[in-house]
Design goal:
Blueprint: H1 2-18, H2 36-42, E1 57-63, H3 75-84, E2 86-92, H4 97-109, E3 116-120, H5 122-131, H6 139-145, H7 147-157, E4 186-191, H8 192-197, H9 207-219, E5 231-233, H10 240-246, H11 248-253, E6 261-264, E7 267-270, H12 276-289, H13 302-310, E8 314-320, H14 334-338, E9 345-348, E10 360-361, E11 370-373, H15 379-394, H16 396-403, E12 411-415, E13 421-425, H17 432-438, H18 453-460, H19 466-472, E14 478-479, H20 489-511, H21 519-549
Parallel strand pairs: 1-2, 5-8, 10-14
Antiparallel strand pairs: 3-11, 4-8, 4-9, 6-7, 12-13
Length: about 550
């Protein structure tokens, strides 16, 4: 029976894909069996024939901010309510996307669904769609009320941006929300002062030069304390994704990307099944045996990774490039700021391997399916949401009021000698507390956020760091999971087991608990544990997708 259900779901997904880019007249959504949850949600439906421009309506905005700032005196609230004729209810949004998803599921089960949710996972999206509890988002409405979003999403996803979120009739049920910097985020960085202390002033370009540097950073007392207590790199091994990213620069040097689905010439690949993975692990095992890698990497959580850098245990490691530079270059800056700017980090392009390959294992820019609306949202409410979300992300006046406040009161517009525009805070609003009290600057973005970083640059990149941003934001290159937004029920069934098997064995190969001449045996074990089945499913889904593209 489970097999029949899985095949049915795959066929449904295939139908979504077959309808990509199709435009059909709106029809009523086909009926689905009602559950108690569906009935509770249907009871909350709102109907209105009032023209959009004349109707004042209630809307909800998720926020990560302390609700004490989000009152009737808040500038952002006053501005949005007056401009769009709405009354805002703020919903507390958990910081973690996973926790947010849990909250929404609890709200649904209690019969109190939110109007919208912008970080829905492929699994939850499929479930909500099959339950019939999310509503269509008419393409005409997107074109009219979110035209800037449509231009932006088409720029990044091509002419068929909704191909994975259409039903068999071509109706759209979600709005994708890629985080575009993700696919060029991960880098290997190390302390420049330590490298200079051991006589290295140029960045290594290949694995041979990198190994020479790693030896010096681990053996030549780079911190000058006359103790043998440093390692070249640390890593976080408690989760398979972070483990693979931590050593992705080594795998990329052998042209393999374990733990993710990539596609080469129409063939879906998992790097752990490829020959190059054994060569990469051989390099990592040698480095571990030489004492170049933090020996605690396999139990390190992200916080332990940070501590290893802060305490001088390790010279560096792999994480997002913008965490190793001043905060004004982009978001983040935590490692640079921790040392109060007294420590600079060398940020490397992926080192080249013996056959000329290089690359990092990157997070996908498509972290989730995107924005959905639940069934009780009326047509006019939907249009209003699209209008507000679009303007908040792409309209300069709206964005300024949300992120900077009032010109001449909270900020002033400045044009530098190069003609670059930026917005400078005016006292007392040069402090976060004052800005939050006023109701602007760093407050949670409105509901969902579509990040056009060309548009947002004057808001998030300090003028003196703009060239650095342009250079570093393109330094990282690699591969990310290319099938992440497509629901893969067979993969979901085996994922936990395969992740555990992959992480445990890779750690054992690296630290020498399992000899590398058993790698082929591991591959056969991995296939027998379900890898063969997930690869068959992934190839079938990709082939279906590829037919649409042609």
């Amino acid at each position: 029976m489970k097999r029949i259900v899985r095949l049915t779901i795959i066929l449904i997904i295939a139908l979504y894909l077959l309808m990509a880019c199709s435009k059909k007249e709106d029809k009523e959504m086909q009926s689905v069996p009602e559950t108690d949850q569906v009935t509770l949600i249907e009871d909350k439906k709102k109907h209105s024939d009032t023209p959009l421009e004349e109707e004042r309506m209630d809307i909800q905005i998720w926020t990560v901010n302390d609700l004490k700032y989000m009152d009737e005196e808040n500038h952002m609230t006053n501005y949005l309510e007056a401009k769009y004729q709405v009354t805002i209810e703020y919903l507390p949004r958990p910081v973690s996307d996973a926790d947010w998803g849990v909250k929404v599921r609890l709200d649904l089960s209690s019969g109190n669904p939110p109007d919208h949710f912008s970080d829905v996972t492929p699994q939850d999206y499929e479930k909500y769609f099959n339950q019939g509890i999310i509503r269509e988002i008419p393409e005409d409405d997107i074109n009219i009320y979110a035209a800037d979003y449509m231009a932006w999403i088409t720029q990044h996803l091509g002419e068929c941006p909704f191909q994975n979120v259409r039903d068999s009739e071509g109706k759209i049920f979600a709005m994708p929300k890629p985080w575009t910097p993700a696919s060029s985020a991960r880098v290997l960085a190390y302390r420049k002062d330590w490298a200079e202390n051991v006589g290295v002033t140029t960045a290594p370009r290949d694995l041979v030069e990198l190994e020479e540097l790693f030896i010096k950073l681990s053996k030549d007392d780079p911190d000058g304390n006359n103790q043998d207590d440093t390692y070249a790199i640390t890593a976080s091994g408690v989760h398979v994704d972070r483990l693979m990213e931590s050593f992705g620069f080594v795998f990329g040097a052998y042209n393999v990307y374990p733990g993710i689905f990539t596609v080469n010439s129409g063939r879906v690949i998992r790097g752990e099944l490829e020959v190059g993975a054994k060569e990469a692990l051989t390099t990592l095992n040698r480095w571990y045996e030489m004492g170049l890698i933090d020996p605690d990497f396999m139990v390190n959580k992200p916080v332990n990774f940070d501590e290893a850098i802060y305490t001088g245990k390790a010279a560096g490691g792999v994480w997002s490039w913008y965490q190793f530079v001043p905060e004004g270059v982009f978001h983040g800056g935590k490692y640079y700021e921790y040392f109060n700017g007294k420590v600079e980090f060398e940020i490397l392009e992926a080192p080249v391997g013996p056959d000329g390959y290089s690359g990092y294992i990157e997070p996908s820019p498509y972290l989730n399916v995107g924005l959905i609306f639940f069934n009780h949202v009326s047509d006019n409410q939907l249009k209003k949401y699209l209008q507000i979300f679009n303007d908040g992300a792409f309209d300069l006046e709206t964005h300024l009021n949300i992120q900077r406040g009032i010109e001449g009161v909270t900020y002033k517009k400045v044009t530098d000698v190069h003609g670059e525009v930026f917005y400078e805070w005016l006292p007392p609003y040069d402090t976060k507390e004052a800005r939050y009290e006023f109701g602007t600057g760093g407050l949670a973005t409105i509901g969902t956020w579509w990040n056009d970083y060309d548009f947002q640059e004057p808001f998030i990149v300090a003028p003196e760091f703009r060239e650095m941003n342009k250079e570093l934001s393109t330094r990282s290159a690699g591969r990310y999971d290319e099938l992440i937004t497509i629901s893969k029920p067979i993969y979901n069934e085996y994922k936990e087991k395969l992740d555990q098997l992959l992480a445990e064995n890779y750690i054992e190969f690296i630290v020498g608990l399992r000899p590398l001449d058993e790698y082929d045996a591991f591959v056969e074990e991995y296939k027998a544990a379900g890898a063969d089945k997930i690869m068959e499913e992934a190839q079938a889904l990709y082939d279906q997708f590829n037919k649409i593209g042609n």
